[in-house]
Amino acid sequence: MAQSAVPATQVQTPPVPLRVPVREILPWAVFAAVLGLVLIYFIGAEQGATSLFSGTWVHEFTHDGRHLLGFPCH
Q: Are 47 and 67 in contact (CB under 8 A)?
């Protein structure tokens, strides 16, 4: 009446770690680093003398995020 779902004759082998080549990760890591630096620039430094764009629209767009992350802007 009581039967096991897995036969007792099966031998379980330990799991093999998944190997991911560095060549596959490196382009994505570089992309993420560049994107992160661009985001930090726009949130933390895009205002006043270091502004790449004229006007204050970038500053106003990132204003709340700037305060949330602790960057001063006033």
A: no
